[in-house]
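ugh ok fine here u go
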Amino acid sequence: MREHLGDHPRDLVVFQRLYFIWFWQGRFPEMLDLSTALARQYPGNSFMLGLHAFALEQAGRCDEAVRAAQAAILRNPLDAWSIHALAHAIYEMAAFDTGIGRLPPAIHPCTHLNWFRNHLLWHLILMHLGRGDYARASALGRRVFEREPSSIAGDLHDSISLLWRLELCGVDVAARWRPFAAIAAQRLDRQGLLFHAAHLAMALAAGGDWATAERQLSMLRERSGKDGSGLTGEVVVPLVEGIHAFARRDYRAALDRLEPLAPRIIGLGGSRAQRDVFHDTLLEACFRAGDGERTRRYLEARLHRRPDHHWKSRAAAGPS
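structure:
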């Protein structure tokens, strides 16, 4: 596909396909290089600007991402991907109030989005979480994801990670896991995407379905021997073991399993905002294990990147 685009740089279908393949491989520098090169072929095109804006945000170039996304939305206010890129950039800049003000009127006119509309609303919920309005975030989560729990992969990632994040923030959601654990139990034959497998593990463990959780882990261990990339055995299996330990409140074991994986989580794909659920679980395990040295080190980096209300509050309270 890359060779094809060298000869046919205006083939947007192939461009988008390669862009998202790399997204799920965590190859964000390649995404940005590609969108930078091809954007020259489409001056002023909102679709291309939105894709480029998201790649800029994933590279940490949020100011540029905001400008590109805003230019795209100005040309086409119904460009949902550009709204999505703007949401990512605003979130990473910790401009939560700005996001809460700008996203609803931007999302509302967009139609025919299917599950992606819920994903845009998930970004709005993250803004409320980031500013510390856990009650509002929890209520929106119920409305968007829990009235009719969905087995669509994108919905599942968002609904499962949202409940997990709420628990990290101290919100009691124990009774709300049941439908998502039931859906996860039915999807063990659909774990081709390792990012998806990790989310199924969270639902099964948090929902207390330990028999199915252990069966899934056994399946992943068996699969690891056939995975030439090493990701299943070297990243996903210990990640799931760490998730299990955290759900069992064995925070020292969770910390020991999760910490070595931190540099490799990106290989599972997903955006920075999506992958935070794994990194934040590691940091919360540091607090709950009472490991002061590692808590200070990881917390400093986390607050430098994006000072969410939860982590600022955690910093003020100190290790538990």
